[in-house]
Amino acid sequence: MISYKKDEFLIMKDEELWTFYKNYKNEICYTILKEDSSGEEVSLIKDCHKLLSVILSNNGYIYILAISSTKALMFYTYSDLGIRENTLLNYSFDMEYIQVISLNNSLNLIYTRYDNNSLSLYHRIIDSNLYITAPVLIDRIQKTTDFPFIATVNSTDLIVLYLKKSQDYYIGYRAFSPTKYAWGSFITLDKSPLLPYDYSFILGENNLSALSYSIKDNYNSFLRYGIIIDNVFKGKTLKTTENVNNYSYLIYEKDHFYLTYTFKNKLFLNLLSVGGDLISIDTIPYSKESKIEKYIIQSDLESVSFTSAFILYDNNKLKFSVLSLISKLINNDPKHSAATKKVDTTLYYERQLIEKERLINKLNLDISNLKNDISQLERTRTTVESKDNEIRALKEDSLRKNSSTIQEYERRLKDKDILIKNLNSIVSDLQEKLSDSRKVIDSLTLSNKELFDRITLLQENSDTVSKLKLQLLDKESTISNLRLEIKTLQNEIETLKASRGSILKKFFE
């Protein structure tokens, strides 16, 4: 059975393993682990409420982040000169688990806490002036029995690997750039069919890294492992038809990745090739009563890097540790030398394979981009053709409407010409009638004058005068009627003239 030391911290310093923890007296202590001995406990800090993290700096100092008995957030610096304390905050903040990473003269606090029953991942920074920034939410993550996340650094960025909170089990990471002061998007490395209960992650050189994780169902157990090339996981799977737990961790040393995993009371040490093959270095059996502890680990070794490691106790004595494995790697253990020699014979070709694969990935990306560009151009062409067809249809419809309108105008013009011709003929007839009426009026006026003259001459004859008066009145009545008829004809002429003007005006409009 394995236990995850989430409240204890393992540091490799001067080729020794130091474990930091809080003892039953609420003291922060450390013990240097030695084979076949329990080690002496050294007390550093009194009255500690909770030990949060221990950080090994590049200058050899050990930084300790803790919550005091007064619930203040404390920062301690431990060196050969003793221990120095600083109060960061007079209060602490809620957290479930925390890892602290040193990068660019700052300490990066990556921690989890529950928000509305969801496990959330947060980031804060302690700068060189011991100023602590406000928390920034990174993501919602999936809870596991293992460490909730793994934080590490490459040459420039802070990398945090975790299981993303979703309906599926996505394993991936996000990177924080101190220069941009921003988090990148989530990079998916693998999708697990089941919830992983143990995983490990390590960064190598030349944009290479490695991942391993364990899953199981009611009948089978699986260990997924492999190299990551440019964020592409080349995973392989070890499967057993037994429902047993297996655990693993990864190491990177001198261009080589190493995978250590447990299975049925045995510890398997393997060299992991770039192609995903496992080459055995050693197998260490242990009893059922043995105890395995898994730590997040830091080291002052420049040639070896790791994020987590096993400590194997048998009968309460240290039987195997990461120091034992590193000793095999560095001191040219015969089994290790044979394994590395076997790998080194193909390492050159694997490097070429990586470069070819990167070139293929780049070409595939270029092809994908070109396909996207072509698709965009096709969509643009289709849009332009559609617009052109719409414009053509509008033009044709407009021409049809204009042609129909012109024909209608021509028909109306022809009808108006005929109507105007008829009106002109009517006006001419009326003008002739008017001229005839005027002649009649002139004739009657002359006749009337003659009658008046005759009346004057014949006044003596009353009967004749009466008759003439009657004739005169009759003539005057006739003249009035003729004048009325002339006026009516003039009105009709004016109406026809106005009608002709209105028709012409409407036509030209």
Characteristics:
alpha+beta, 3 helices, 5-stranded antiparallel β-sheet, 509 residues, 8-stranded mixed β-sheet
Describe this structure in words.
This protein has about 500 residues and is α+β, with helices and mostly antiparallel strands. Among the domains are: about 1-90; about 410-509. It has helices at about 320-330, 335-455, 460-509; strands at about 1-5, 10-15, 15-20, 30-35, 40-45, 50-55, 60-70, 75-80, 80-90, 95-105, 105-115, 120-125, 135-140, 150-155, 160-165, 170-175, 180-185, 185-190, 200-205, 210-215, 220-230, 230-240, 250-255, 255-260, 265-270, 280-285, 290-300, 305, 310-315, 315-320. The strands form 6 sheets. Strands 1, 2, 3, 4, 5, 27, 29 and 30 form an 8-stranded mixed sheet that branches. Strands 14, 15, 16, 17 and 18 form a 5-stranded antiparallel sheet that branches. Strands 26-25-24-23-28 form a 5-stranded antiparallel sheet. β20 and β21 form a beta hairpin. α2 (about 335-455) runs antiparallel to α3. The longest helix has about 120 residues, at about 335-455. The chain is rod-shaped and about 180 Å long. The two termini are about 100 Å apart. The mean pLDDT is about 85. Keywords: Coiled coil.
